[in-house]
Amino acid sequence: MKRARGNNILWSLHRHLFDCEAPETRGEQLFFRVFEGFVVTSSIALCWSWGWYTQRIEAVVHPLGLARYIDLSFLYDHGLSLLLAALVSVLCLAGFARVVPRFAYPAALLLFHLQYVARFSLGKVAHGSNFVGMSLLALTLAWVFFHEARLQRRFTFGFLYFFLGLGYVLAASCKLGGTGLTWPDGHHLWMWMMERKVDVLSTFGSFTPNPIQRFLLRYHAAATVVLAFGLITELLGWMMWWGPTRRFILLALVGLHVGTALTLNIYFTLYMIELLLLALPGAKIWDQGALFLGAVGHRKRVGAAYQRR
Amino acid sequence: MAYRKAGRLLLVVLSVYGLLVATHDGEFWPFSVYQMFSSAGRPWTRMLIRDVPSIPPATLRWTPEDMADLSGRPFAMREHGVPQNDVAAYVVQTAQWTPARGEGLRAMLGYETASERVLAVYRIEGSLAQDGAVAVTCTPVLYLTPDTLLVNPHFDADETSKGE
User: Fold this and answer.
1) Is the CB of B9 less than 8 angstroms away from the CB of A14?
2) Residue B77 in contact with residue B87, Cβ under 8 Å?
3) Is A70 touching B (CB cutoff 8 A)?
4) A76-87 pLDDT, tens per residue?
5) pTM of the full structure
6) Cα diameter, chain A
7) Going by C-beta distance under 8 Å and a sequence separation of 6 or more, which residues neighbour residue A55?
8) Is A181 helix (H, G, I), strand (E, B) or coil?
9) Residue A35 and residue A24: Cα distance in Å, rounded?
């Protein structure tokens, strides 16, 4: 009985993530291209941005990822990081244009990783690109392991729902593991706000708190509520694994990042765009719009036919 | 069949994910455990740079100051195309300021020796006081001049372990 129930839950998870049997609409096909275009554009932009900065790095301080096993210091000379960015650009565009995508996307992902570890080798890790990287990994696996275009698209989104949800749950777990149940204490937010104030001063030369920051710095209870909302939202990240709760939790996570931007001046712009693309019913809007225009077009054709008679 | 394949792929990637983050301090891009903000309430150390008037070395101040009383004007990293996070990590994690370390900092800041400007690098430390307020102290760590590096003689290398 328990095994049957467990199998049912797993089956339900598979169905909600991948939905392999449902027919695909034109809107879903188009929306996938929009999403894929976002991932490709972001990957290219990030690699060029990192490539330019890597030219200024003189030595590896804290090797990450594959840089722990391969000496990547050669990337800091002779514009090689820019060549890497160019290669990623060509490969991503090739994948998007469906020119040997089974080779292009995996190769782009590998070079993207090398560009990341070359750039962030000075001791400070940035997470703003992890979702884009996971998206490129999803595209890589979809094209390597699936041959039918519909299944490639369904797998890409299902993979992302699973690992994005897991990522937020892991983040919340780290917070609870690192600090305990007192993590949402408003004093902690004050500490981070002051820390970010120094960073903003250092970056821009000046800092003026916005009304939300002034309010939170004045009222400890409000700061506690804000942190508690963030933590609970992250803990519920697994809800995007199931269809009925997906949009709700995706929008709540967008709210979390908006809150992070307003309180701490930390902007996870790529995360927010990707979450919005996944949350908003772009495909449905397209399909409904096409239906409406199709109906209007049909009425016009019928009317014109009557006039000719 | 498709469900089974997708499920197996998910399981394989999950296993690889777990293995990589477990053996690489939680980070193996694009995999991560997202441990930022996990240590709440602990003291933090950051960095600030000020563009100060040229000061004779004998009159340099090395004592902690209030942020509002810092001399000179802000050295805004964005204006100079310098990623603030990298410089902060570099300064906070430096145990000993050797000439080579100083040159590395100059290169990161794009500091032109012909400019004749003096840059004061401050170590900013924040902690929770007894009353719940955040106490912030600013200690000058070094002064960068066109031709030399003046290090705070009271700078404690062990303090760098408190960096983020």
Assistant:
1) no
2) yes
3) no
4) 888 899 999 999
5) 0.87
6) 82
7) A76, A79, A81, A82
8) coil
9) 16
